[in-house]
Design goal:
By secondary structure, this protein is α/β, with parallel strands linked by helices. The protein has helices spanning 2-12, 28-55, 68-75, 79-85, 137-143, 190-198, 208-217, 246-262; strands at 17-19, 24-26, 60-66, 89-95, 109-113, 122-135, 158-160, 168-169, 179-180, 185-187, 204-207, 221-222, 232-239. The strands form four sheets. Strands 3, 4, 5, 6, 11, 12 and 13 form a seven-stranded mixed sheet that branches.
Length: 266
């Protein structure tokens, strides 16, 4: 070991370890080099694990949790293809419109929309989605289209009961690039707000992944497009690292990433 360390120090032309008769101690350069070396070893181990996963046919139960709009509009259409590719993986699909504790809810993967705050979880980016302000033709015929963000004060607005941050719409106005609304109707689920908007109950601000088809067929129309700031919400899959689940998690996330990449939502 001593000779190997000496050869490494000679090659790098730095002293990695201070030696005395009583102890050995890393130098600052040694600490930096060790940290980088550990990252390399970890990356190699992860690569080996992925190759091992690919050699095995994944099987067993996979529990996935997502907000109901994402589950309905993104994940549910992918289930048939995923089950055909991985017939031995059983899926349990649960919905929750609030952030959950994965362990408490016995969840393997949770889909989270927006900025992440829990650093104890592993995260994998899946996609980004733009926010738009929308209304139905029925509502616009009845109430007219707003010409500026300030006009929203005289309109019926649909918003989230929680978190309140979702009621800050990405609209340029005299106060900046965020227009905080005071909704007349509130709901905890984006899908509930979507249905209300389709029924002509008011103006709403929703992500593209749940309104793409509505906008294509004209049942929801974007308003205030010229005043809308492009805000891209990140969508991440979060999970605890668990070797026993690794193959099922990897297969599911690889499949979802592949499909949402091919079928770009806009």
């Amino acid at each position: 070991l001593s000779r190997a360390l000496a050869r490494l120090e000679e090659k790098l032309d730095v002293t990695l370890m201070r030696r005395t008769t009583r102890r050995l101690e890393l130098t600052e350069e040694g600490q930096v080099f060790l940290a980088q070396a550990r990252k390399i070893i970890s990356a190699v181990e992860e690569a080996e694990e992925q190759m091992e996963i690919r050699r095995k046919l994944p099987a067993g139960l996979l529990r996935v949790n997502a907000a109901s709009p994402f589950m309905l509009h993104v994940l549910v259409p992918l289930v048939r293809g995923f089950r055909q590719r991985y017939p031995d993986i059983d899926l349990e699909l649960n919905t929750n419109d609030q952030i959950i504790d994965l362990l408490e809810h016995r969840t393997d993967i949770a889909i989270r929309i927006g900025a992440l705050s829990d650093s104890s979880l592993h995260a994998r980016p899946l996609m980004t989605n733009r926010l738009r302000v929308l209304a139905s033709p029925k509502y616009l015929h009845e109430m007219g289209a707003p010409k500026s963000p300030d006009d929203l004060l005289s309109h019926r607005l649909l918003g989230f009961s929680r978190p309140e941050s979702l009621n800050a719409w990405p609209l340029r106005n005299s106060q900046g690039d965020r227009f905080v609304i005071a909704p007349q109707v509130l709901a905890s689920s984006g899908e509930t707000l979507r249905q209300l908007a389709l029924a002509g109950e008011g103006i709403v601000c929703l992500a593209d992944f749940m309104t793409s088809e509505d906008r294509k067929n004209g049942t929801l129309i974007e308003v205030l497009a010229g005043d809308t700031v492009e805000v891209l919400q990140p969508v991440n899959a979060v999970y605890y690292r668990n070797t026993a689940l690794a193959s099922r998690i990897s297969c599911f996330l690889d499949y979802v990433s592949e499909r949402v990449g091919k079928e770009k939502i806009n």
